[in-house]
Specification:
heterodimer; A: alpha/beta; Rossmann fold; 7 strands; B: alpha/beta; seven-stranded parallel β-sheet
Chain lengths: 254, 265
């Protein structure tokens, strides 16, 4: 089960899982993009499932997990990639509605999916849950407080859930991407004082916004994030749980 | 195969996690230089690797001796022509002892192997890697580098230093684009670290220690291992092999904990 599967890291991971022979249930709130993703991934091999679902709606999430389990007989892997970063705002001026939207999708959506999926996984004492944190969960970013707080929340949610499920065969981990070449990053407005695109600011660094930039000198690709998800989802990663795996070209460390 | 045509050096390759790394990389096509202070163990693992159908070169190397490292690096280059992957597994433990009673000699021995050995091996391998702007260095750290343990002060400090050495070296090599430096942080793992460090224990003692690690002990191992089992060398090797892969090219300066959550609890 991949949420946010219609674009960016979710889509790249759905593609990589399908190429590895996994039957993928694509979940996204955007119907059109979901249809495109579903037909693309259908060409890889095993016919994917496809669900238009809003992860902030707990009942919808439960229904989808139930449908997947009924259709496939089981649910082995949950990758919660659904996440949003809408308009930047200072915390002092932030509206309740903007704060609540980020909280609902990035944190509650991740929790709802994990809760529903874990119930299913616990029946067989086996499962892999992988969430998407962010270096923004460690580094404060100007005008991104709403996003940063939810991603810090995803990190601790991942660890607490991992502890709760540790003795029952389900591992819970997160990837923490640095700036990645996705529609989310491209959709960010640039620095007001600069005509540079946000992706260039991310690589080169911008005081107060992206810190010192990315030591490896380039953005991440969605495929590089997907590779980390596939490793955490693999049999080989059985002893790894509660870990936040940074795939960030060292952007967090400087 | 993922590592066909690549050369890997594994220090401490004669047993435990190092052996599992050599076999895992060899199984996927890598040529393996097996370095170990115990030449018999190195030769035996090299034979196991060769049985997989790839080349292997055993060498007796003391990583606390820079002349050994220089000679072994040159010999590896002479034999295989390149160095793509360095896995620093060689490490030593001390008999449990308060830091207040640890002698300078004991402290220095742990640091000579666990930190300076890693640094020297990385230095020489990285000089080769920068020529081709490509390479993977993976250091074996420990959850003990993150969580303090009573009686294991010198070991804990050396492993914390390895984690930060990893970050500093990763930053320095980042501009080359294709060289990453990462660590793997094992939790309690079934290896011969104690025996190899001159700290033999009976099967009963080993069993008692393992039970204590699993169940927890407020002073020593906190809440134990939530996942409910001690790690196997293969669990650690899987993380090393992932970090050594082409796909992990955007991951650098990290410590990937393979600990069944032992380091968080």
């Amino acid at each position: 089960m991949v949420t946010g599967a219609a674009s960016g890291i979710g889509l790249a991971t759905a593609r990589a899982l399908a190429q590895a022979g996994v039957r993928v249930a694509l979940c996204d709130v955007n119907r059109q993009a979901l249809d495109r993703a579903t037909s693309e991934i259908g060409c890889i091999g095993i016919t994917p499932l496809s669900f238009e679902v809003d992860v902030t709606n707990r009942v919808q999430v439960q229904t989808v997990v139930g449908d997947i389990a009924r259709t496939c007989g089981k649910l082995d892997i949950l990758f919660s990639a659904a996440g949003i970063l809408r308009q930047p705002s200072s915390l002092l001026d932030m509206s309740d509605s903007l704060w609540d939207q980020h909280w609902a999708v990035n944190l509650m959506g991740t929790l709802y999916c994990a809760q529903a999926a874990a119930q299913e996984m616990l029946r067989r004492q086996y499962g892999r849950i992988i969430n998407v944190a962010s270096i923004a969960g460690d580094l404060p970013r100007l005008n991104m407080g709403h996003y940063c707080v939810t991603k810090a929340g995803v990190k601790m949610l991942t660890k607490c859930l991992a502890l709760e499920l540790a003795s029952r065969g389900v591992t819970v981990n997160a990837i923490a991407p640095g700036p990645t070449d996705t529609p989310m990053l491209q959709g960010l407005p640039g620095d007001e004082t600069s005509t540079e695109a946000p992706s260039r600011l991310a690589v080169q660094g911008a005081p107060e916004v992206f810190r010192l930039g990315i030591p490896t000198g380039r953005l991440s690709t969605p495929e590089e994030q997907a590779a980390a998800v596939l490793f955490l989802a693999s049999e080989a990663a059985a002893q790894i749980t509660g870990h936040i795996l940074y795939v960030d070209g060292m952007a967090k460390l400087v | 195969m993922a590592f066909t045509g690549k050369t890997a050096i594994i220090t401490g390759g004669g047993s435990g996690i190092g052996r599992a790394c050599g076999l895992g990389l060899g199984r996927q096509g890598a040529r393996v230089a097996v370095w170990d202070i115990n030449g018999v163990n190195a030769a035996s693992v090299a034979d196991e690797v060769k049985a997989l159908g790839v080349r292997a070169l055993p060498m007796r190397v003391d990583v606390s001796n820079i002349q050994h490292i220089e000679a072994a690096t040159q010999r590896t280059l002479d034999e295989f022509g390149r160095i793509d992957i360095l896995v620093n597994c060689a490490g030593v433990a001390l008999a449990p002892k308060p830091l207040l009673d640890t002698t300078p000699e004991e402290f220095q021995r742990v640091f000579a192997i666990n930190l300076k050995g890693v640094w020297h091996c990385a230095q020489l391998a990285a000089r080769e890697m920068v020529k081709r702007r490509s390479g993977r260095i993976i250091n074996i750290a420990s959850t003990a580098g993150k969580v303090p343990r009573v009686g294991l002060g010198a070991y804990c400090i050396s492993k914390a230093a390895v984690i930060h050495l990893t970050r500093c070296l990763a930053l320095e090599l980042a501009p080359y684009g294709g060289i990453t430096v990462n660590a793997v942080g094992p939790g309690p793992t079934r290896t011969n670290l104690r025996q190899n460090s001159g700290l033999p224990e009976t099967i009963e003692q080993a069993k008692a220690r393992q039970d204590q690690m699993l169940q927890g002990n407020p002073e020593q191992f906190r809440l134990g291992i939530p996942l409910g089992r001690v790690g196997e060398p293969e669990d650690q090797a899987a993380a090393v092999i992932f970090l050594a892969s082409d796909e992990a090219g955007y991951i650098s300066g990290q410590c990937l904990y393979v600990d069944g959550l032992a380091g968080e609890s």
